[in-house]
Amino acid sequence: MSEEAEMAYNLAFKYEAMYGSCPQAVLRAIYEVLNLKGIEIVIKSAHALAGGLGLSGNGTCGALSGGVLALGIFYGRSLEDMDKGRFLKSYVKAKELYDKFVKEFGSCVCNDVQTKIFGRSFNLWDSEDYKKFEEMGGRLDKCTDIAGKVAKWVVEILLEDKSIKEQVKS
Q1: Lower CB count within 10 Å: N or C terminus of the chain?
Q2: What is the pLDDT of residue 55?
């Protein structure tokens, strides 16, 4: 594992433990490791993606969503390019991350991931269930590890691309 990937893992783990919101933890770690500028609004807008979208548990894991947003910063289609067709590299890189995630956690759906790592899922809107989530290590070593792994994988994917590696190193 590269030094940058390890640092991304550790920062995302730390931010998820300290503040919650796994997509923000992932994005903030990548932002810091790659010394990105101007993505603060992306980090802010990712907040409600946590817990499978609005803490519903029924959508994509927030850490994975944050990772895909980070990839989109580099590979996504800009407003100026919207009339130029599909940007397949964006889809290819998102699918690469998705495939790693599903291989590791069995699904991209938050409730399914919770069931795999905790043996059950949680209603994060219910205070008693949220307390149980915390007691079982939700922000101690479970969701923190997921956020860390996603941040690490994204940094690895990005740094495999020579043009991006040169871009972030300068």
Answers
A1: C
A2: 97
